[in-house]
Design brief:
three-stranded antiparallel β-sheet, mainly alpha
Length: 346
């Protein structure tokens, strides 16, 4: 009976995690003012209203029919909100706000989905022998998909003007202690990339399997993130005007978009101003710089270096000096905690 009770508890934890993931995306959408819900903060992306329906339609399209045999109650929305994160065909989308359903209709659709899925999930988890054999894996996909959107939506909403958002209560600015950066020598050794199929309780996407080892030559890597102050030196040295630092594709992108500095920086007289999620502050020199891959690559080349490969990154984070084993976490074997970093949206 003890083992059975534990199994039931573990299965019910999945529903709790799904509810928590919903709370995360709900929290993100509350940032958007009502009049901005049809805005498109990034030209290549859908309007915000799409994502309001998408995170729910994804769960429905994944679970309703296959896992529970539920019949669609609004096929038009099932299809409308099932599209991927980017509009199709490669060009910029040309739809207008009028092409989308009213917010009230979308919210009604979302509530119906949650009600039907929650009832079905609870029923299935109470009778695991009768449920779909892949239900747990499918719930993992639903949870991870939603949490991924919590991250990408936060990035998208950073691009939304502050006046179009419900600003969070005033909080103290995140402070970073000044740390002297230096290179750390990493000896040659092996790095394990990907996940092992037999790791039963660890979720992974299909392109994360199968685990394999790569040999990594010795290299050196900075011990801290590149800061705004570091990157400002690159700018002052003419990094954005130096053609030799940029690949052909990156140089064309920079010219087309008129990129002359990081996305969320702007000059005000002799000062640089940084645009946070909810307002503007004087550029914090010790914060990690927030730039594109193209800009990061040019910065590294300016220093006579390169961005780390996947193998190098893993070797630096998880490897041990003698290469005989790998750590479970970059700091060792101790479980993640608030003393080790920012976890669970904290």
């Amino acid at each position: 009976m003890g083992a059975l009770a534990t199994a039931v508890r573990i299965r019910h934890d999945f529903h709790t995690r799904l509810l928590d993931a919903r709370a995360r995306t709900d929290e993100v959408f509350r940032v958007v003012r009502e009049e901005a819900i049809y805005d498109r903060p990034i030209p290549e992306r859908h309007r915000i209203i799409f994502y309001v329906g998408h995170v729910e339609a994804f769960d429905w399209n994944l679970l309703a029919g296959r896992a529970f045999g539920l019949r669609s109650f609004q096929r038009t929305f099932d299809h409308l909100f099932s599209f991927g994160i980017d509009p199709v065909d490669g060009g910029l989308p040309s739809d207008t706000p009028a092409d989308w359903p009213a917010r009230e209709e979308v919210e009604r659709y979302n509530r119906r989905i949650r009600e039907e899925l929650d009832h079905a999930i609870e029923h299935a988890l109470e009778r695991p022998a009768e449920g779909h054999p892949q239900l747990i894996a499918m719930l993992e996909v639903a949870i991870e998909h939603r949490l991924m959107h919590a991250e990408t939506l936060a990035y998208m909403l950073h691009r939304l003007p502050s006046a179009r958002k419900n600003c969070a209560p005033e909080q103290a600015a995140w402070k970073s202690h000044r740390v002297k950066s230096h290179l750390v020598d990493i000896p040659a050794g092996r790095a394990t990339l990907g996940l092992k199929t037999e790791t039963g309780n660890v979720f992974g996407w299909d392109n994360e399997f199968e685990a394999h080892e790569v040999e990594v030559n010795e290299f050196a890597i900075d011990n801290t993130n590149v800061t705004n102050h570091d990157f400002l030196r690159f700018m002052q040295a003419g990094g954005y005007e130096s053609r030799s630092l940029w690949s052909e594709e990156a140089w064309a992108w920079k010219a087309k978009e008129g990129v002359e500095h990081p996305m969320f920086w702007r000059r005000e007289g002799n000062l640089w101003i940084y645009r946070t999620m909810f307002g503007e502050i004087r550029l914090p020199p010790e914060w990690p710089v927030y730039v594109s891959h193209a800009e990061a690559t040019a910065y590294a080349k300016w220093l006579g270096r390169k961005l780390p490969t996947e193998g190098q990154f893993h070797r630096a984070a998880y490897g041990t000096p003698d290469g005989a084993r790998e750590r479970s976490y970059p700091w060792g074997e101790e479980a993640p905690s608030a003393s080790r970093g920012n976890f669970d949206f904290k």
